[in-house]
Every structure is written in C-alpha cells, then in structure tokens.
C-alpha cells in the first residue's frame, strides 16, 4: 500500500472510530494495509457496518448489486455495492475517496453507504 493511501486509510479509520461504534480491529487492518481488505461487498459490510445493522445492509447489497462491487445501472448513475448515485460524489470526497475512481471499490462504496445511512437511515434504499 502506498504511503499516501495508508495515510488516507488511517484518517478515514480514525474518523469512523471517533464517530461510530464499529469494531476497531476492522479499521486497524485497513489502515495497516492488511491482507484482509475485503474484495467483495458482503465482506466490506462485515468490516464497516455495526453488527446490529449488517443483516439489513447485506440484504440491501444483494437487492441492489447481487454482491457485485462492479454493478452498474444502465439507466442511471447508480454504481457499486449499494448502487450509490453520482449525487453522492461529495460524500465520497468528504471521506477521502473519489466518485470517479472509487465508486466500484467495495470498501469505499460501503463506507460512503454507511455515512449516508447515518444521515438518512434506510430511506435511500427504500
């Protein structure tokens, strides 16, 4: 992992740890470039979302993308695990990601989805 990516991952993890009740071990592995970085949507949900919310989040991932991080809606800008829209690009930026390059990254998409959930609850996926 490049030093700049490691610093970014550490900053995101510190932000998430400071504002959520997520398991610290998951973010520590991301910050240290651990080999356990998820490459699929459900694994990312398991690492990012609190345990009490994981079941519903995984059901949403299945409905929206069939657990495919590269899912793309042909009729809209919806992309990635949670089928986030281009209107959420500022949220990607807020968390240190880029809509253009990171929307199909399962960890980035899942972190942004969790941030969206914290602001709006389940309504974006209703």
Question: Could you walk me through the main structural features you see in this protein, from its secondary elements to its overall organization?
Answer:
The chain is mainly α. It has a domain at 38-125: Lysozyme (Orthogonal Bundle), CATH 1.10.530. The protein is built from seven helices and no strands. α1 (3-19) packs antiparallel against α2 (24-31), α3 runs antiparallel to α4 (51-65) and α3 crosses α7 (106-120). The radius of gyration is 13 Å and the shape is globular.
Task: Give the arrangement of secondary structure elements.
Elements: H1 3-19, H2 24-31, H3 41-48, H4 51-65, H5 89-94, H6 99-102, H7 106-120
Helix pairs in contact: 1-2, 3-4, 3-7
Q: Profile the largest sheet.
A: none
- Rounded to the nearest angstrom, the distance between the terminal CA atoms is 37 Å
Which ranges are low-confidence, i.e. pLDDT below 50, for 5 or more consecutive residues? 17-29
What is the helix content?
A: 55-70%
The CATH topology of the domain at 38-125 is Lysozyme
Summed up, the helix count is 7
Rg for CA atoms = 13 Å
State the name of the first-level CATH class of the domain at 38-125.
Answer: Mainly Alpha
Let me know the average pLDDT: 83
The H/E string reads HHHHHHH
Any guess at the CATH architecture of the domain at 38-125?
Answer: Orthogonal Bundle
Structural class, from helix and strand content?
mainly alpha
Q: What amount of the residues lies in strands?
A: under 5%
DSSP, total strands: 0
Shape: globular
């Amino acid at each position: 992992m490049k030093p700049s990516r490691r610093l970014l991952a550490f900053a995101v993890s510190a932000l998430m740890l400071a504002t959520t009740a997520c398991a610290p071990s998951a973010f520590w592995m991301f910050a240290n470039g651990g080999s356990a970085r998820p490459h699929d949507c459900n694994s990312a949900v398991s690492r990012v979302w609190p345990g009490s919310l994981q079941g519903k989040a995984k059901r949403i991932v299945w409905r929206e993308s069939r657990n495919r991080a590269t899912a793309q809606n042909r009729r809209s800008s919806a992309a990635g695990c949670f089928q986030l829209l281009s209107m959420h690009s500022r949220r990607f930026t807020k968390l240190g990601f880029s809509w253009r390059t990171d929307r199909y990254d399962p960890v980035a998409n899942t972190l942004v989805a969790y941030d969206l959930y914290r602001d709006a609850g389940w309504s974006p996926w209703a």
